[in-house]
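Subject: for your reference before the review

Hello V.,

The reviewers asked for a structural picture of the protein, and I figured it would be easier to keep everything in one thread rather than splitting it across files. Below is the amino acid sequence we used in the manuscript, unchanged from the supplementary table.
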Amino acid sequence: MPVSPVVPPCEPVSRWSPLMPPQDGYRAEDLDRIPDLPPHTELIDGSLVIVSPQKLFHMLVMELLAEGLKARAPGHLRLAREFSVRLGERQRPEPDLLLVRAEAFRQLEQTWFPAEAVELAVEVVSPESEIRDRERKPQIYAEAGIPHFWRVEQEGVDAAVHVHRLDPAEPGRYGDPAVHRKRLVVSEPVALDIDLTDILGR
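And here is what came back from the structure prediction:
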């Protein structure tokens, strides 16, 4: 996912040019003010990130995990897809999947969830998003106190899920992940048992 060119909020996307971003970077609320932004634009460290077209693996593994999460989520949690989370003034990423406390679904016009409402953030790694999904996003999710983070990697026709949980001994950090291949078997934040093999053959 290439970092987008940035311009003052009054300019439509069609007139963007690769200029320097605002001195202090964009802020979370700017995503709701800049006209004609492409769908699923994220804000990472004050810079806009444009999402590239999805690959089939990305779509299929999202569908697989979403079905499981939605079916097994307890009543106080709801599934959200590709919806942004405000983590701070310069951080508003859009995880591929989220489990969010039900009370955070407040009004139809809302465009983001607060970090404290999120129990789980899931990112499916694409070649162009590897550094963000493997390094930067886990950092900012952990610093914002999101208890669970899953990173999904493609391994041939299978998926591998790297399951991270906040480290109680080190606030603001995830501990070493448990890597699930062949099957995703977890007990929190929901109890799941999902076959991760041959995503393409489903």
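For the response letter, the relevant points are probably these. Residues 1-19 have pLDDT under 50 and may be disordered. The helical segments are 56-72, 130-143.

Happy to draft the paragraph if you're swamped.

O.
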